[in-house]
Amino acid sequence: MHKTSLTSLPPPLSHSLTLSIPSLFPLLPQSLQFFLHLVTMSGIQQAMSLLISSFHKYSGKEGDKLTLSKAELKELLQAELGEMLGKASDKSAVDRIFKDLDSNKDNTVDFKEYVTLVSCLTVMCNEFFVKK
Asked: Domains (ranges, CATH) in the chain?
């Protein structure tokens, strides 16, 4: 773990504090905190972190901050998966994707339902590249 000695700080912090980088996170800008986390995480942990942050980047713009509305899902699909899905701007395609993802029929897509989409797309990509 990275250590930083804070011996040159004015009192009361001058008494040789040794802090780890994670303990300094609240003092750092959020973008730098995210970068420092990525530096120390495994590839799978980085992928998980990106899945979570991508979901929350779009969720809650309308209503519940823990779910995606149809409009939020459409924005996510276009911005994050546009090249892969191609028809993410097609209203009927978005409607079908939304209906398929909304397994509990509450008219929103929660995190579990969103991860289902990403998992299915990941499996399809793997199958595509394995067949090449």
From this structure: 3-38 (no CATH), 43-131 (1.10.238.10)
